[in-house]
Amino acid sequence: MLLIRATRFLPNPATAADNAFQSAAPGGDDAQGAAELSARATMEMDAVAAALRAVGVRVHVFDDADHTRPDSVFPNNWISTHAGGVVGIFPMYASNRRHERRGDVLEMLKSHYRVQTIVDYSGLEPDGIFLEGTGAMVLDNESRVAYVARSHRADAAVLERFCTDFTYEPMVFDAVDAGGVPIYHTNVMACVGTELALFALDLIPDVVRREQVRERLSVHGRAVVELTEEQVREFAGNAVELTGHHPDGRQRRVLAMSERARRSLRSDQVEVIERSCEIVSVDIPTIELAGGSVRCMIAGIHLDPRPGVEPGPSDAVLAINEDNPVTADGRSVS
């Protein structure tokens, strides 16, 4: 998995208007307050990396010292990786997020893993067409379904293109909170793993569509933990299943989430989760001010490692901030 360690952190003013999960930064308006906020956020990023390495998850960390990328800690919006050696690059709504895309990240993936094809949709941004990666889409890699809450961050046309290119079935629905405000990113209300899904089905107002989603989630016997809106507000849906390893090399399924999210779960929900996954939770209150939690911080790596260069689970790849964004145009082959 990939983490971006941003040394400058501040909730992004360009996304505050439509991200109902975002909060104002306390004391972040002056230089001292901003520095203190960034320091706390950096410690939280390091804590996430340490907690996941402790359960044998392979973590790549890239430093980012660019002060003009307030949301770079959330790389899952611009990149996704897929079995078969395919990488997706996505168009993003906020203009000040578009230079989060980094060529050095792609070079690391190509040098450490088998990358066959890079599919780059970012050229759609000038046309006002956006699909913010695994924030806008929650991907079921077992049944090949892309669950998507409608929003201006998830354009229907590019979603169809993605699903054709990456062989997913689109399952699109409307989702709103109690005040009728659309859910801006699907991954705040849903997490789909191998044998388990966390899903705030009650946020889908269309009863027929809600039951279709419920049925599709559980078609192969997957357990569905239904989240309340209050739990979604605590980021319980913003979790992700990862593969870790025991010290003897045996694989283990891990569900990564924030401590705030973990505290919001009822004991019966935790019991269902722990039948499938080991919960790893980390307290990240500063980062959550930006409207995202642990899942948003993680870009999963679903690529085969290259022989002889496979890093151990405790290795980190630290890179200097790169000024140039990804410049690939259309579909390119590495």
From TrEMBL:
<dbReference type="InterPro" id="IPR014541">
    <property type="entry name" value="Amdntrnsf_FN0238"/>
</dbReference>
<dbReference type="Pfam" id="PF19420">
    <property type="entry name" value="DDAH_eukar"/>
</dbReference>
<protein>
    <submittedName>
        <fullName>Amidinotransferase</fullName>
    </submittedName>
</protein>
